[in-house]
């Protein structure tokens, strides 16, 4: 799936079934369902899941919790606009095997 296809899928009522759990969480976050997104990443123990988890806590304004999850993901704390970080995570995760 390309980034453009992912963006178009946001118009659907649910994420495509072939997405990884971190990408599904980002899909729900983009569709204004932070709780669903957070619920998904709470169950994912991978670095990718931790990265998305960090982004979600940054989105909610809980920077201390976000810092913890960035550390678990092995990623520096983001300082770019949230939308740019979201797009960057999606693009990188789409390159990874699901």
Spans of at least 5 consecutive residues whose pLDDT stays below 50 are none
| Beta-strand proportion | under 5%
The overall average pLDDT, rounded, is 96
| Element pattern in H and E | HHHHHH
Our Rg estimate from Cα atoms comes to 12 Å
Largest sheet: none
Number of helices: 6
Structural commentary:
The protein is mostly helical and 98 residues long. It has one domain. It has helices at residues 3-9, 21-30, 34-42, 47-60, 63-73, 82-95. The radius of gyration is 12 Å and the shape is globular.
Topology:
Blueprint: H1 3-9, H2 21-30, H3 34-42, H4 47-60, H5 63-73, H6 82-95
Helix pairs in contact: 2-3, 2-4, 3-4, 4-5, 4-6
Condensed summary:
With 98 residues, the chain is mainly α.
Keywords summarizing the entry:
single chain, 98 residues, mainly alpha, 6 helices, globular
């Amino acid at each position: 799936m390309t980034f453009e296809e992912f963006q178009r899928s946001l118009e659907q009522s649910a994420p495509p079934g072939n997405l990884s759990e971190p990408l599904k969480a980002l899909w729900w976050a983009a569709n204004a369902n932070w709780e669903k997104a957070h619920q998904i990443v709470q169950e994912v123990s991978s670095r990718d899941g931790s990265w998305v988890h960090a982004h979600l806590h940054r989105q909610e304004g809980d920077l201390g919790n976000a810092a913890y999850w960035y550390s678990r993901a092995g990623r520096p704390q983001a300082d770019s606009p949230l939308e740019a970080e979201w797009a960057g995570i999606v693009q990188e995760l789409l390159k990874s095997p699901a």
